[in-house]
Amino acid sequence: MKFSTTCVNVVAILTAVAGSASAFAPTMSAVRKSSSASTSLKSTVAPSIPTTDTAADTTVASIPKFAQRWRKSTKQLATLGPASSTLEMIETLFLAGADIFRLNFSHGSQEQKQELLTMIREVEEKYSHPIAVLGDLQGPKLRVGEFSNPNGEVLEKGQIFRLDLDEAQGDNTRVMLPHPEIIEASLIDHVLLVDDGKVKLTVVGKGDKYLDCRVDVPGKISNRKGVNTPDSVLDISPLTPKDRSDLEYMIGIGVDWIALSFVQQPSDIEEIHELIDGHLKEDAFRPAVMAKIEKPSCFYDDNLEKIVELCDGIMVARGDLGVECAPEDVPLLQKQIIDTCRKQGKPVVVATQMLESMIESPTPTRAEASDVATAIYDGADAIMLSAESAAGSFPEESVAMQQRIINRVESDLHYRAYLNQLTKNDGVTPTDAVTIAARQIAQTVNAKGIVSFTLQGSTALRASQERPTVPILAITPFKETARQLAMSWGVYPELPRSGSFGFSSDDDDLTTVDNPHVSAADGDFDIVLKNACRAALRKGLVNDPNDLLVVTAGIPFGTPGAANIIRLLPAAGPSCWDGVCRVDE
Questions:
Q1: Distance linking the first and last C-alpha atoms of the chain
Q2: Which pTM does this prediction carry?
Q3: The CA-based dihedral angle spanning residues 565, 569, 572, 577, taken in that order and rounded to the nearest 10 degrees
Q4: Which of 181, 205, 285, 447 is deepest in the core (most CB within 10 A)?
Q5: pLDDT at residue 427 tops 80
Q6: 174 in helix, strand or coil?
């Protein structure tokens, strides 16, 4: 096989930099040994990745643990908390498979969240891989008042219990409900659920300042227990004063995603967009908005479709959704939400109680493993851990278990069959045609990956919507876009070093690969394609010069969503084909 000196050196040096378990053929080893540049470079991927020169150690079998990230398509979202608030544990969870970290603003101070984000960025820089950060707003908390008996009261089945606006302490017959919106919105026969549904009340009478309720499911009710209103749409903003302060803080510190709780209808999404517009500085990158679907009103009429359209992503928040909807309905609603998101090309996260028992146990129940697998089979972009990683005794084991389940499901032939059956939008635009064709070409020629050059992420999102059989390598000039794309199924973004798609034309020797000089795209498409090959090699997606990549891009560069080019490219570079490389004089 004949390669030009330039091509060989690029491949060899990048192989050394990647520490390459996915190194090219043994002929590259000799070149790597003779390259003085390669011996002086340090890996930007991971200190745990071997950088030995022996050909025996540069086989696919020696792919390091970190490289398993490129072998899964479903993403993992881990919540940070007391059990995972150190740099060491954040790095451990990342290496175990976490792609996104959630900062729950329901607990802790804003300053604590800033410290966590700083540590996440340190891990991101160390491994040269974009990590998304999701800031989760608390939302309104609807609660009853306090009782004169500090132990609360036990309500009997069939008794009448009043909820009112009287500030006096409650007893066995009544308690304050400091939310006039609930009293106003509730009608006769509407259901109210107290303490996550442990007590069920049905409205049998109402006045301007009270509701008389029949106790249908008896139980104990005590101070400040939560109230759910599954039958009512409340005239209340999803953003409390605390949420508005937290939202401004999130924008200021630069979170990538913002999750909105207590979404009842599309106008709630419009409200948070207006607030973001008001806080966003000129030329600042806009955070993506994720709606948490946890209220039955989201499924009225066409509310779900409109909410998905207005958002950048969706979370299936099965905690409150499981309280306000019948348990047997939740699996069906989960599938409906996922299908709607797939049709519109928006990432969707399945959350809550996925591996609940692993808060205290190093292994999950079989039912929990099946629940995680079901979400993956349903086609979710990501699955989330809450208390398991935030406050549990086994945060690393929880993340690793999720990855094990992902790998097992995605290796099942049924999984691909299910994905192909799921709803998707075939589209009518040139970008749709290019993206669909790229998926088909990649499958036909057994390509190792699809490389998507994308400005704001729309082209990569469209590629993810197709659920191709190979990884999607997204190359973007903006690190903020790269981080947001970490949420999407099958998309693994390259962390850009500067605001450009390509390396400079005099960068062929890659002697500064740890911090390469990046210039503005100057029309030399070959330079941009070389960048694609380098990124694929760094990520371990290719391990032979003849491995093929399917590249999609838009010319002119800088036009959002303008995918109008497909190029089939060998890993050796744009100047090579079928083992022969052009040598420029």
A1: 20
A2: 0.85
A3: -120
A4: 447
A5: no
A6: strand
**Longest pairwise C-alpha distance within the chain:** 93
Q: Kind of pairing, strands 153-155 and 132-136?
A: unpaired
Quote the CA–CA distance of 540 and 18 in Å, as a whole number.
8
* Mean pLDDT to the nearest integer, 209-230: 97
> Tell me: the pLDDT tens digits for 428-485?
788 889 999 999 999 999 999 999 999 899 999 999 999 999 999 999 989 999 999 9
Contact 260, 314 (CB under 8 A): no
Bridge partners, residue 154, by sequence:
220
User: If you ran DSSP here, which 8-state letter would residue 259 be given?
Assistant: E
Contact 355, 394 (CB under 8 A): no
Helix (H) or strand (E) holding 394: none
Name the residue with tokens 């950048």: 312
pLDDT(391) > 70: yes
> Residue 323 has which token pair?
């309280």
Alpha helix (H) residue ranges in 128-154: none
Q: Which class for 480: exposed (0-12), middle (13-18), buried (19 or more C-beta within 10 A)?
A: buried
Give me the pLDDT at residue 525, please.
Answer: 77
Angle at 284 between CA 281 and CA 289, to 5 degrees: 100
Euclidean distance between CA atoms 315 and 139, whole angstroms: 14
**Could you tell me the two tokens for 65?**
């643990």
Relative to beta strand 100-104, strand 472-475 is unpaired
**362/118 Cα distance (integer angstroms):** 29
Higher per-residue pLDDT: 39 or 461: 461
- 103 strand-pairing partners: 80, 135
